[in-house]
Amino acid sequence: MSDIANAYIPPAALTGSMRDFRVPGGADLLRRTEGFFKWQNLRRENGLWPFSRATEEGPSTVCWAQDDSGNKMRGVNFASQDYLSLSSHSGIKSTAKETIERFGVHSAGSPALVGNTSYSVALERKIADFLKMEEVVLYPTGWAAGFGVIKGLVRSADHVVMDMLSHSCLQEGANAATNNIHLFRHLDNEYCRDILTKIRSKDKENGILVVTEGLFSMDSDTPDLAALQALCHEFNATLVVDVAHDLGCLGDEGRGHIGIQNMLGKVDIVMGSFSKTFASNGGFVACKSRAVKEYLRFYSAPATFSNALSPVQAATILKAFEIVDSPEGRAQRSALMSNVLSLRHQLREAGLDYYGDPSAIVCVKMGTEGVARLVSQRLPELGLIANLVEFPAVPKGAARIRMQVMANHSEQNIADAVRMLKTARRQAELQFEDINQPASVAASVAA
Ligand SMILES: Cc1ncc(COP(=O)(O)O)c(C=O)c1O
């Protein structure tokens, strides 16, 4: 074990959270960032800041990476979002190269002007058909699509009713659009019904956007979409479902939970990202009318005032959709699901528990932030690259190591990862107990 994993750890590096610095006090906007930096640095100096890492050879199943102090690590990679392993697919790479030859590398304009290319137009059509929707608007990122669809449609007198665990892009979009935000308990459609009933008892004039995800990225669970859509119809509300993590990679046909739940073409609005399965940055909103599409094009700022997807991105994503929609895509999904089931099985055998239903996201329960940070500190040296997730991204005391599975992971990769996680967990628990002994707390206070 390295020196850092054996060294004395100041308790402050194992406690606190990013939430503590979200509203810093003081009139100097720049100086007041320093509290966060100090806390972050304490963690960094103790090897407990596993964020902002960079890979050295793309998101492959085994790769070199470095942390934000420049420390290099090589390991089995369960930290990248490339669920069908398409980012290194030869067809994707050759499409990108050919597109560069024809179009260069830049879109040089927003989609509202002349930023789109023939690839973007073909991609819009492909996604609309894939989802049995009528129209699609492309966005520069998935985040921009989530933010943009809410900010584009909702005005200050309207209401947003959202699953309390909805992604940051959806929450930020809602906050930017209206003060009338109502969160409902995760996946709880009855709770949602109560909120809709209350809103409509007072307000029949304004709009209601109900927001959820096809697959939640920290819990790997899914709402009953048919029931939620029916609820929206009942209360004259509109449903938007974010399918960032399930589209393309889940379900026999790759249509995610919308397909699995037989809801293709039946959800009011589908919003997604290309960055998990479709080998590129970018996002989209799919809707059922040209009117909605045209409105979003000109009133959803990231689709109007931000540069369009580059021709390379649009062509790459189009190729990725073709693969996803082919026998090869089906084979990759099946390889992904065998890996997921194998990982879950081996974790359980190793006494490690995880959240949710089978999907490319396998979040392993760690409990307190202190233990989770010590686990994550050990992983690079053992040879595992996996992400730490802690409060406020998830509830306090429910920290986890998020493993994101790819179709090209091997059985050996999975077995190695489980072995390393088990070792790290055992060592971290012992160290955490040690740190929390009264004697060492007293020593740390004295120090
Ligand atoms: C549920 C969800 N929606 C949207 C996004 C944003 O997508 P992108 O990374 O393409 O901006 C993410 C990314 O993590 C996500 O998890």
TrEMBL record:
<dbReference type="InterPro" id="IPR015424">
    <property type="entry name" value="PyrdxlP-dep_Trfase"/>
</dbReference>
<feature type="domain" description="Aminotransferase class I/classII large">
    <location>
        <begin position="76"/>
        <end position="419"/>
    </location>
</feature>
<dbReference type="InterPro" id="IPR050087">
    <property type="entry name" value="AON_synthase_class-II"/>
</dbReference>
<dbReference type="InterPro" id="IPR015422">
    <property type="entry name" value="PyrdxlP-dep_Trfase_small"/>
</dbReference>
<dbReference type="GO" id="GO:0016740">
    <property type="term" value="F:transferase activity"/>
</dbReference>
<dbReference type="GO" id="GO:0030170">
    <property type="term" value="F:pyridoxal phosphate binding"/>
</dbReference>
<keyword id="KW-0808">Transferase</keyword>
<dbReference type="InterPro" id="IPR015421">
    <property type="entry name" value="PyrdxlP-dep_Trfase_major"/>
</dbReference>
<protein>
    <submittedName>
        <fullName>Glycine C-acetyltransferase</fullName>
    </submittedName>
</protein>
<dbReference type="InterPro" id="IPR004839">
    <property type="entry name" value="Aminotransferase_I/II_large"/>
</dbReference>
<dbReference type="Pfam" id="PF00155">
    <property type="entry name" value="Aminotran_1_2"/>
</dbReference>
